[in-house]
Each structure stands twice: as C-alpha cells, then as structure tokens.
C-alpha cells in the first residue's frame, strides 16, 4: 500500500477539491431521495445538530475581509495559459495578518507590513504541469494609498537586501513597480502599490531569462490591477461586524470540537502533518465565494460550485442546484482511484467512502467519505473506519437538519 506523497497530501488539505471520486457502489439518484431516521444513526462523539454562529471579532473580520479580496483575484493562467495548476504549498489562501504573509514572502516582510498597518490580503499561485514555471500573486490591503506606497518600497528593499547578488529590474509599462532578481537565478520578484493595495508578484522560469520573467510579471499586473478596482473595502472598525457564516455553510459542517464553533483561521500546517514536504498555508472555519472557490478547485476544468466551506481537513461545496451537484458527484476525481472502498453508514444513499492506505498514511486523513445531499457535496476525513462512519452520519444529520 502506498504512503501519500507531498502532492497527494496537499490534495487532502484541499479536501473539498476531491468532490466524490472514491471507488464504490453508486446509487442512481431519484427525485425524492430516501430519508434516514436520524435517531437510528451512530454519531459517536461528533456534533450532529447545527450550532449557532457566534458574533464576529476583529480577527475573524480580517479573515473574512481577506476572503472578500479573493473574489477579485485573478487566475495565474490569465497571465500565461500554461500556469493552470495549483502549486503544492498554497493555491488560494486568505492572508489576514503580516505573520501569515511571512509564510509566503521573506521573513522580513512581516515587519514591513506590520509597520504600515496591513489589514487583509490574499495569495494565489499557479504552475505548469511540470511544476517548474510558477507565478504567485499577492494582494495586500493597507489602510491608505500612502501606506501602500511605503510598504511596497519597503518590501522590495528588505527582500533585495537578503542577498548581495540581487539587482534592480524595471517592469515594462509599470515604472512604479519595484523589482529585483539575481541574474544567475531563474526567478524574479516585483512589488507595486495600487491604490490602498500592495501587489507582490513572484515569477519562476525554466532559465534565468530576464525578458521572460518581466513579461510574465507584466502580464500578471495587467490582469490583476484592474480587478482590484472592483473591490469595495470594509472599514476596519467594522471588521467584527462581518458575519462569520452569512450563508449557513459552516453550520452544515461537523465542527472540530463538540459544541464549539470552528472559528475562522489561517494556519501553517507543518511537515509533521504532511508527508515528505514543507508546511502549507491552510484556511479553516471559512467560506470561499465563487471566484475563490474556482481558484481552490481544479482550474483546468471549471467547477459549477459557487461556495466552498472548510473546517479542519473537511470541506463542503455548494452548487446552484441539485442537478449540478449530482453531476459533480458522479464525475468524481481520479486522484482517488487507488483507495480501498469502504461501506458508509447504513441507509445513507449517495455516499462513497475509502481508505487511503496502510500504516504510514497520515492518520488524520486516512479515511474519507464524500456525501451528496441536495445541492451540497461534503467531504469528511477521520483516523479510523468507525470514526469515518460516525462522522459521515453526523455530516448527513447536519445537512438534513439545515434543510
């Protein structure tokens, strides 16, 4: 049996991307699915009745504002059509604080952004199928345009100072952009202020080709900057008023702890949780909007999902209607082709469960079930066969009771 490699493990963290492809017996849909008596299900220790969302906080507001920025982020493939594959460390993640940005940029970025009052941000990355050429775009909201200008200059200066071989570079058509690179290294970083936003772009090419790198960065700015003009910012003093679960997605999911709401957060999942790789940024207790849902999904074939909720490693996708959801469920995902199929909770239709492998697989995500319910597809993970059935039953109950 295989051990999940770092690429597969990253796929698990984007749990909801794997909509329903576990090998198993498929039950044809009907107009009126069979309802299970909830009193007959074994929930174990899992929460199986919806919780009430708590009021927001300043930090939760930063996370949600960052997710709102995700709705005006561009797909890196708009700059170069070959860069359509999400990278392994982050695909589309909110960046609510300077500390989280330092997980993407250099460590020196944290102090610069804190000094100039960063409020929220978002990062999206794209790579080619060979995982060689890459493009990462960050949009970081600052309190004012002047703060953005100062932060952009500070980010470039501190990053360039990390290595004495860095030299300044101009980006065609963007004289205000600050950029640098090492002429013997096949990567380049650029930063520009755009209104109250700082936009940071990092490009990697196959060879140290300055023309190719500046062209790619320019194309990324061409695509991204106009989109930021559509963003309607929330005043910082109103961050706590942003609803944590305005569309009721998170209330339909199994919380990480019984009786306790899973608060919005962005975490760095370390190498102890991911086989053979670096840590990755992962949002949890959050709901992505339509554009960010697409960026988190496979960008090579657009999903019809219009919302994505994440709690821990679990995910919930919402579709425009039950027909769209069923089509997505039946398409499945080839990444799950080598799972050992498992039976789900007795009586629940439209569920597929599987085992990722023998000892050596990541215990938290060894067992998985994908559940179709109306216009929703839920994906849940657990460390044992008994727990995955109990957790799936709890997930079914939450979806039923939310109707």
- Strand percentage lies at 15-25%
Give the helix level as a range of percent: 25-40%
Q: Roughly how many Å is the radius of gyration?
A: 22 Å
H/E series: HHEHHEEHEEEEHEEEHEEHEEEEH
User: Which structural category do the helix and sheet elements fall into?
Assistant: alpha+beta
Overall shape: it is globular
**Main beta sheet strand tally, sense and closure:** 7 strands, antiparallel
- Number of H/I helices: 9
Report strand order across the widest sheet. Answer: 1-2-3-7-6-5-4
The total tally of domains equals 2
Q: Report the uncertain regions.
A: 1-31, 271-278
Extended strand count: 16
- Quaternary structure classification: single chain
Average pLDDT score: 88
Task: For the record, give the distance between the C-alpha atoms at the N and C termini, rounded to a whole number.
Answer: 40 Å
């Amino acid at each position: 049996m295989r051990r999940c490699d770092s690429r597969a493990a990253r796929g698990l963290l984007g749990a909801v991307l794997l909509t329903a492809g576990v090998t198993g017996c498929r039950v044809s849909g009907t107009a009126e699915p069979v309802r299970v008596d909830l009193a007959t299900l074994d929930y174990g220790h899992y929460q199986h009745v919806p919780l009430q969302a708590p009021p927001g906080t300043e930090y939760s507001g930063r996370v949600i504002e960052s997710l709102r920025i995700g709705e005006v982020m561009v797909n890196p493939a708009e700059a170069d059509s070959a860069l359509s594959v999400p990278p392994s460390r982050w695909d589309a993640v909110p960046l609510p604080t300077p500390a989280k940005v330092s997980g993407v940029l250099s460590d020196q970025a944290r102090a610069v952004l804190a000094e100039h009052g960063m409020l929220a941000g978002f990062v999206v990355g794209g790579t080619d199928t060979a995982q060689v050429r890459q493009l990462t775009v960050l949009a970081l909201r600052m309190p004012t345009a002047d703060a953005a200008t100062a932060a952009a200059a500070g980010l470039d200066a501190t990053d360039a100072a990390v290595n004495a071989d860095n030299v300044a570079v101009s980006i065609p058509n963007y004289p205000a952009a600050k950029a640098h690179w090492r002429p013997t290294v096949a990567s380049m970083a650029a930063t520009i202020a755009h209104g109250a936003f700082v936009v940071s772009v990092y490009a990697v090419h196959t060879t140290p080709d300055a023309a190719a790198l500046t062209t790619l960065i320019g194309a990324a700015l061409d695509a991204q900057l106009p989109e930021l003009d559509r963003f309607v910012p929330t005043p910082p003093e109103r961050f706590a008023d942003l609803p944590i679960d305005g569309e009721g997605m998170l209330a339909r999911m199994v919380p990480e702890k019984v009786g306790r709401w899973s608060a919005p957060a962005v975490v760095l999942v370390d190498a102890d949780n991911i086989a053979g790789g670096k840590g990755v940024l992962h949002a949890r207790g959050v709901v992505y909007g339509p554009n960010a849902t697409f960026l988190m999904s496979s960008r090579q074939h657009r999903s019809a999902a219009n919302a994505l909720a994440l709690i821990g490693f679990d995910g919930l996708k919402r579709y425009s209607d039950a027909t769209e959801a069923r089509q997505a469920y039946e398409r499945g995902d080839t990444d799950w082709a080598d799972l050992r199929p498992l039976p789900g909770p007795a009586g629940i239709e439209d569920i597929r469960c599987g085992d990722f492998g023998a000892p050596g697989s990541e215990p938290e995500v060894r067992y998985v079930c994908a559940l179709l319910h109306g216009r929703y597809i839920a994906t849940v993970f657990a460390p044992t066969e008994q727990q995955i059935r109990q957790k799936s039953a709890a997930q079914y109950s939450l979806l039923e009771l939310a109707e």
